[in-house]
Write a structure and sequence with these properties.
By secondary structure, this protein is α/β, with parallel strands linked by helices. It has nine helices and twelve strands. It has two domains: 128 residues, Response regulator (Rossmann fold, 3-Layer(aba) Sandwich), CATH 3.40.50; 92 residues, Winged helix-like DNA-binding domain superfamily/Winged helix DNA-binding domain (Arc Repressor Mutant, subunit A). Strands 2-1-3-4-5 form a five-stranded parallel beta sheet, sandwiched between helices. Strands 6-7-8-9 form a four-stranded antiparallel beta sheet, covered by helices on one side. It has a three-stranded antiparallel beta sheet with strand order 10-12-11. Bound molecules: calcium ion. Calcium ion binds next to loops.
């Protein structure tokens, strides 16, 4: 029997790796209220064990864990061929741009500094999980040369095959495709891909654009650095 999208969302199981009991309980309760299944552990090694035995759709990860650095755990997940597509959402008091960049380089899907807004937390979790919901493809493709993007199913194809982008890479590509040939500043990209009220450092944009370029293969060369300005997507030849 076909389940509605709403029902599918509720089948998601989320692992919380967080040693601060207050944050662990808060995030667990917020996610339970949304109808998700939740398992919470306090240490990195328990997180790794849980990942071995249970199937998860998302990991909420603290960086300052008692037995290991959360970035190390993130890297372990991303190195594992069975789990590399499992999204990791970093939630931490370490809010420096260097830590954010490190987290994204380690393959994290998203990053939220503590203290965080509860609604923003839930919205970001939903956005990550929405991409994992099976959705029927719709006829709403944005096409530019060999790049095709479907906003409704959150899928991207490049040079004939599907490619896996993180949520941010997807949003940035969508901004590029909607503004062909236009030079965009890092601030423009943040405003359009993250939303107007986001405190993201411009350097983070460079990390995402770098990943996006390499995932697009030869088409990535169309994403051009515009000195003193930012980036633009050149039209297909
Ligand atoms: Ca901690």
């Amino acid at each position: 029997m076909n389940k509605s999208k709403e029902e599918n969302m509720k089948d998601f199981q989320i692992l919380i790796v967080e040693d601060d009991p207050a944050v662990s309980i808060l995030t667990r309760d917020l996610l339970l209220k949304e109808g998700y299944k939740v398992m919470a552990v306090f240490e990195g090694k328990d997180g790794l064990n849980a990942l071995k035995w249970e199937k998860f759709d998302l990991v909420i990860l603290d960086l300052g864990l008692p037995d290991m650095d959360g970035l190390e755990l993130c890297a372990k997940i991303k190195e594992d061929p069975l789990r590399k597509d499992l999204p990791v959402f970093i939630l931490t008091a370490r809010g420096s741009s260097e830590d954010i960049v490190k987290g994204l380089e380690a393959g994290a899907e998203d990053y939220l500094p503590k203290p965080f807004n509860e609604r923003e937390f839930v919205a970001r979790v939903q956005a990550i999980l929405r991409r994992r919901s099976p959705l029927p493809p719709k006829d709403d493709l944005i096409v530019s040369g060999k790049i095709k993007l479907s906003p409704s199913s959150h899928e991207v194809w490049c040079s004939g095959g599907p490619i896996q982008l993180t949520l941010r890479e997807f949003d940035i590509l969508r901004v590029f495709l909607s503004n062909p040939g236009k030079a965009l500043t890092r601030e423009d990209l943040i405003k359009m891909a993250w939303g107007p009220a986001t405190a993201i450092v411009p350097k983070v944009v460079d990390v995402h654009v770098g990943h996006l370029r390499s995932k697009l293969g030869p088409e990535g060369k169309r994403v051009e650095t515009v000195p003193q300005v930012g980036y633009k997507l050149n039209p297909a030849k």
